[in-house]
Amino acid sequence: MLLDALLSDDAAGAAAADAWALIEALYPLCRSLTGDGVRQTLDCIGARIPLVRTEVPSGTPACDWEIPREWNIRDAWIADLGPGGDGHRVVDFRAHNLHVMGYSVPVRRTMTLDELQPHLHSLPDHPDWIPYRTSYYREQWGFCLRHRDRERLGPGPYEVVIDADLAPGHLSYAESVIPGESDDEVLVYTHTCHPSLANDNLSGIAVAVELARALHQAPTKPRLTWRFIFGPGTIGSLAWLSRNEERLGRVRAGLVLGLLGDPGVLHYKHSRRGDTLTDRAAAHVLRGTDAHAPAKLLDFEPYGYDERQFCSPGFDLAVGRLTRSPNSTYAEYHTSADDLSLIRPAQLAAALQTLARLASVLDANRTPLNLSPKGEPRLGKRGLYGSVGGGAPGAFEHALLWVLNQADGSRDLLAIAERARLPFEQVEQAASALERAGLLRTVEPAVPEDLDSRKKGPLP
Amino acid sequence: MLLDALLSDDAAGAAAADAWALIEALYPLCRSLTGDGVRQTLDCIGARIPLVRTEVPSGTPACDWEIPREWNIRDAWIADLGPGGDGHRVVDFRAHNLHVMGYSVPVRRTMTLDELQPHLHSLPDHPDWIPYRTSYYREQWGFCLRHRDRERLGPGPYEVVIDADLAPGHLSYAESVIPGESDDEVLVYTHTCHPSLANDNLSGIAVAVELARALHQAPTKPRLTWRFIFGPGTIGSLAWLSRNEERLGRVRAGLVLGLLGDPGVLHYKHSRRGDTLTDRAAAHVLRGTDAHAPAKLLDFEPYGYDERQFCSPGFDLAVGRLTRSPNSTYAEYHTSADDLSLIRPAQLAAALQTLARLASVLDANRTPLNLSPKGEPRLGKRGLYGSVGGGAPGAFEHALLWVLNQADGSRDLLAIAERARLPFEQVEQAASALERAGLLRTVEPAVPEDLDSRKKGPLP
Amino acid sequence: MLLDALLSDDAAGAAAADAWALIEALYPLCRSLTGDGVRQTLDCIGARIPLVRTEVPSGTPACDWEIPREWNIRDAWIADLGPGGDGHRVVDFRAHNLHVMGYSVPVRRTMTLDELQPHLHSLPDHPDWIPYRTSYYREQWGFCLRHRDRERLGPGPYEVVIDADLAPGHLSYAESVIPGESDDEVLVYTHTCHPSLANDNLSGIAVAVELARALHQAPTKPRLTWRFIFGPGTIGSLAWLSRNEERLGRVRAGLVLGLLGDPGVLHYKHSRRGDTLTDRAAAHVLRGTDAHAPAKLLDFEPYGYDERQFCSPGFDLAVGRLTRSPNSTYAEYHTSADDLSLIRPAQLAAALQTLARLASVLDANRTPLNLSPKGEPRLGKRGLYGSVGGGAPGAFEHALLWVLNQADGSRDLLAIAERARLPFEQVEQAASALERAGLLRTVEPAVPEDLDSRKKGPLP
Q: d(Cα A144, Cα A133) in Å, to the nearest integer?
């Protein structure tokens, strides 16, 4: 099928090596919802796959929200002016960009430790890690530091500087589209707003890039149009959704990707409806993953990443989420310990293999109609069946019989594979053979609707 | 919520003490389908809560039945006229009103033991207990006695007297109504026809009285109108149903109460449809009862108390039943051993607490609609969400997200609580906050229909 | 009910003895898709039950297929002309009719062993058994032999003769119809095309004959019309289906019977839809079979016997399959070891008992409507209920209450029995009593539709 090439261990390993190189390049950049760090990130991605970039002006409405001002930071520090402090930087943005709370307003002041304390964030339970904190929508400023360092702070005074701009500008996102035979689309969204955090979400960005590259380079045109979106969390998906409402009716499936490099097993989180095409395909594919580290299926919940927006009731798209360890479930989450040592090339490679199979299933799925539905058609005279009777049929004949029997126009190949308890690929192969023999055709629309989507009305 | 006041152990204990006092007052009275014993019972209830009484004349049709003649008994005995018998009463109605089969026709005769035997009822397996027997709809008479006493009877002759009237009169029932914001109703029915039996059903009567009293005294008007009915079993509910057919379309939920004082755990029996509002609310609330004595859910079956009538196919109301030990499942059932020693104040109190929570859920439940359904609305600017990002949301924020995500007008708060695996109260609190913030409104009708009621046609 | 007479061990044993006699008579005949062996088989059946025979000319279309030429074989052998071979028959059709591949074209040649080998079939894993092979739809010829004998063959040359005709003629099938009160039908199909194989399918033929005979001799007319079809596998059912399309809308239930004499437990295979009347009745009846050898339910799959055709998507009939060991699951399947020693009269008898109960349930099932649906009707005044109250109702009263409560026209007796967890027979008895009392009538159509058939459109 479409991405069979990526399924081999060698191919997935090579792609994971490329992903790793991208992660290393992106790690030092200071990303946020907006700003030049994001633009540099998109530059790196654009060097690998075709990318169309969009800059949305601050103040533009996006659903219930509006695009915030653009944030750019040059430097920031807390310098000890106290006795023996020597003006030494006790917290230094140049050492780690997590030290500054994202979207901090500019500040330049001299303060005592007591005055400073309300602006400090640290993790008593993990005294060597710097936490990641932001304040996108309320004007404030803050520093994040190791708790161990915080406890060493003297009474001050301190020079406190955040040399940043928070001013009208733009929000940047980018899309990479692989046109298919159909205008119907699969969405892949990954968030680009986190600064130096490796698993969350350089792993997601890099895996998405490799998947998109494989689709761009696939020997055949995909059946569906694939759209990869690289944008900031929440406000990025809201911006894209509000600018693309007319397109949403064509979204057949979708995935939010993130957190794909850590040692945990894969977790697929269902879409809001719970039985969309994406959900059914993911359940089918993930059942076949590594028996020693079997993937897990999670029910939908309205907390997480951008699936929150895609699955809000007014959109209710067939968008699920694939991660390894889910957000908030591991200690290093949203701390400086989410660095390159947390992620592993082999985990990126295995995620890519699973995604390649999932993408292939989503793309090859279709709803077949048996053109000779009364009784079984004669397969023997069409060269599809052994000529000596009396023995049991083989696996391929079995798949042929299942497809013919179930192809009444009410089920797609995925549903047939599930009922027959056969791998999708075997059912798809049988369907292709029957199509060539003139016994089967795909019903319109060529691309299977989400089977339960008939229950849905139009977008409000 | 509505009856939060009754949830504390102190409040429930005080209410249970009042219930106990009522039970003690009612225990000696000889009740039956009709008669002055019922009227005295309703007098006692009416001294505690507002009560509107109805007297239905004998002969009035009630569905397939008709109101029977009224039965009143003054005295009854079997006196031994045999050698050494001395005219001594060997069975005496004045000692226990269970001694006479309910609705026995008057008799005054002298008979041998052999002639008397077909009229005697006793329990060989429980020789010290008097059974409870009735013959409402066939003219006969009988005595119930301890098997141990029956075995001691000499050959007679005996003087056999039942000094009773069975004559045209009335059937008495009474209602206590707490008007709500809506005309939609919750029914609570409890049977008043059993003579000196404590669990069945003075416990049900007394608990219903305390629940009604709490609703009458609640600081806020309930959303729904609550209707408590005190009437005899079977013919009482049939009489009420046949006189109130035009009202039945408004019944949103309902409970038959009985057998609430014995040591058994609570049992909720589903309504005929099995997924009505009452069923869903009871399942939700009972899941949260005492972990050491968890409540049990029973499937519907057409045997039991007045739910048989409410759940007959021509009415098919959303009426379930709450008891402790179900009828027929304990040895003392329908015998003189169902006396005050079988029931316990603590069991009455715990039943009241569960009922208070269940009533509060039924009353607060509603179907919310998210007024900002495209993407998540900005909770932060409305003061509903913390302003520093990066950490996980708390329980209240979680509930806010669930309500917003699910509030598409197809689910009530109870369904949202079930899907979110959150307590109803937490979901209701979140919904109220969102309503105050203008992000949510309740869809019409304000009171949630039983979710599956759309499948139902009108009453035939 | 209808076939209660066959439920006793004595009656079933006698019927099984008759079945055994028929099997012994039919075993030596050489059957195939067509030909005189089939006609002789139908002669034997016709001597036991009324039979209407159909002869379909070769070349007649049957769905996607056409009726093949008729095959008749007189003799066949491989004679050893080699040194010391003496012209001795090393393979001889007169010894076992499995020796010739079914539908072999005529041949008369002298060949070496090397030339002969591609035409030989044997079973290395079972060297003493002759395999059963056919080539209905491709012109070829072959011999089947014990692998032990094959290994002893010298280099030849051999005289190879198949004295057969493959020429325009007819396909023969036969029907036995028991007219019912209704034109609605139950189909029973059993395949007649296998040569000397006892379990597959003389067991099925003989059990079908005994079931048909019991229905023909039943003291009352069945409610449904029962149609037994004896025809070859695949092409026989296709021929019948293509000639009876206008009749298919009347098919309420159906069974393919086969493989009923081996030592295995009974297996019911669901119809394609999985919840048809046949499926529900079989699940109910098979749950009650021998606790020491409980029957098993199998999901539908499109491999097996003639249910493949009845359950093709263009017909999609309510036809399941009853066998003991399913095809292909035991070693002797389709070999000469499937002889009389594989099957047992007691297994035939037990299969007949189960079928008698299943047939009775299918025939007695109907959809009742409570004519007094508001409240419970007074059963006591109609003589259906004990007159002294206070005790629990008995099993019959329980069944009465269940039927009355559920009889809203949306459920048949089988569904009521399942919900009430009562045996169908008890529910049917209660329904009959309520019908006699004027409290219940059967809704039109008198014969229950498959409950989910409303979802189905007309045949395409």
A: 7
Query: Is the distance from CB of C449 to CB of C276 less than 8 angstroms?
Result: no
Task: DSSP letter for A100, please.
Answer: B
- Picking from A137, A316, A460, the nearest residue to B387 by CB comes out as A137
Q: Which of A370, A375, A406 sits opposite C63 (nearest CB)?
A: A375
- Helix then strand then coil, in percent of chain A rounded to 5, is 35, 20, 45
A187-226 burial code (b ≥16 CB/10 A, e <16): bbbbbbbbbbbbbbbbbbbbbbbbbbbbbbebeeebbbbb
Between CA A394 and CA A403, with CA A397 as vertex, the angle to 5 degrees is: 140
pLDDT tens for chain A, 460 residues long, are: 889 889 999 999 999 999 999 999 999 999 999 999 999 999 999 999 999 999 999 999 999 999 999 999 999 999 999 988 889 999 999 999 999 999 999 999 999 999 999 999 999 999 999 999 999 988 999 999 999 999 999 998 999 999 999 999 999 999 999 999 999 999 999 999 999 999 999 999 999 999 999 999 999 999 999 999 999 999 999 999 999 999 999 999 999 999 999 999 999 999 999 999 999 999 999 998 777 789 999 999 999 999 999 999 999 999 999 999 988 889 999 999 999 999 999 999 999 999 999 999 999 999 999 999 999 999 988 988 765 666 667 889 999 999 999 999 999 999 999 999 999 999 999 999 999 999 999 997 655 545 444 344 434 3
Contacts of B265 (CB under 8 A, 6+ apart): B293, B294, B295, B296, B324
Distance of CA B147 to the CA centre of its chain: 32
Question: Is the CB of residue C150 less than 8 Å from the CB of residue C123?
Answer: no
From the list A373, A390, A392, the residue facing C313 with the nearest CB is: A373
Chain A CB contacts of B390 below 8 Å: 131-134, 334
Q: DSSP of B169-215, one letter per residue?
A: -EEEEEEEEE--SSS-EEEEEEE---SS-IIIIIIHHHHHHHHHHHH
From A65, A131, A301, residue closest to B378, measured CB to CB: A65
Q: Which residues pair with A268 in a beta bridge?
A: A297, A322
What subunits make at least 3 CB pairs under 8 angstroms with C?
Answer: A, B
- Chain B hits for A121, CB-CB cut-off 8 Å, are 388
Q: What is the pLDDT of residues B215-264, one digit of tens each?
A: 999 999 999 999 999 999 999 999 999 999 999 999 999 999 999 999 99
**Partners of residue B134 in chain C, C-beta under 8 Å:** 388-390
pLDDT digits (tens, 9 = 90+) for C322-375: 999 998 889 999 999 999 999 999 999 999 999 999 999 999 999 999 999 999
Test A312 with B374 for CB contact under 8 angstroms.
Answer: yes
* Phi, psi (rounded to 5 degrees) for A427: -65, -40
Beta carbons within 10 angstroms of residue C125's beta carbon: 7
Please state, as a whole number, how many other Cβ atoms lie within 10 Å of the Cβ of residue C108. Answer: 9
Tokens of B30: 């000889």
Structure token pair of residue B192: 């008043």
Looking at the complex, report in whole angstroms how far the Cα of residue B238 sits from the nearest Cα belonging to chain C: 6
Separation in Å, CA C40 to CA C15, C49, C102, C193, C260: 22, 15, 17, 12, 22
Chain A CB contacts of C237 under 8 Å are: 375
The DSSP-derived string for B209-258 is HHHHHHHHH-SS--SSEEEEEEE-TTHHHHHHHHH-GGGGGGEEEEEEE-
- For chain B, list the contacting chains (3+ Cβ pairs, <8 Å): A, C
**Residue A303: its chain B contacts at CB < 8 A?**
392-393, 398, 401
Handedness of CA C310, C313, C316, C320 (dihedral sign): positive
Q: How far does the CA of residue A278 sit from the closest CA of chain B (Å)?
A: 19
**From A242, which residue of chain B is nearest by alpha-carbon distance?**
B374
CB pairs under 8 A between A and B: 87
